[in-house]
Amino acid sequence: MVFITDEIRDKIEDLDIEQVASELGLAVKNHKALCFVHDDRHASLHFERNKKIWKCFACDVSGKGVVSLVMAYNKCDYVTACIWLCDKFNIEYQSFKNKTPIRKKKRILPKYYNTKEKEEVKVNETYYRIANWII
């Protein structure tokens, strides 16, 4: 599990959209590139660096931000796109893969079984109330 903090998200969103497009394998020239969605022969995918917007004027696919570009190009979800960007641009993020999640302990009342017949023995009502009060 990966946790994307606000600080990491801000660093990702500050990346240059044309530089990200180049890392994806798009040949960006004069703020234009061949569209990756359709079979493009003329550069119809346009980038606006100041607003971090990308749009294809042929097939009308568009998005805002570098994460949406990576999501559309790699056909992945938000977290996977953020991990890809962090790996490519050396942004550190926290991963919780090796750590076990902290779970609340369940309240377990003692069960008394008859070992020979494996039938549940009724617990004294007073003992049951005391056990619940302690827990």
Note down, in words, how this protein is organized.
- The protein is α+β, with helices and mostly antiparallel strands and 135 residues long.
- Strands 2-3-4-5 form a four-stranded antiparallel sheet, with helices on one face.
- The chain is elongated and about 85 Å long.
- The two termini are 32 Å apart.
- 15% of the residues are buried.
List the helices and strands and how they pair.
Layout (H helix, E strand, L loop, with lengths): L1 E2 L2 H8 L3 H8 L7 E2 L11 E4 L4 E4 L5 E3 L1 H9 L3 H11 L5 E2 L29 H10 L1
Antiparallel strand pairs: 1-6, 2-3, 3-4, 4-5
Question: In summary, what is this structure?
Answer:
The protein is an alpha+beta fold.
Query: Can you give the mean pLDDT?
Result: 79
Which H/E pattern describes the elements?
EHHEEEEHHEH
Query: Any idea what the shape is?
Result: elongated
Strand arrangement in the largest pleated sheet: 2-3-4-5
Instruction: Give the distance, in angstroms, between the N- and C-terminal Cα atoms.
Output: 32 Å
Helix content: 25-40%
Q: Work out the radius of gyration.
A: 28 Å
Structural class category: alpha+beta
Helix tally equals 5
Strand content: 5-15%
Extended strand count: 6
Largest sheet: 4 strands, antiparallel
Give unreliable regions as ranges.
113-120
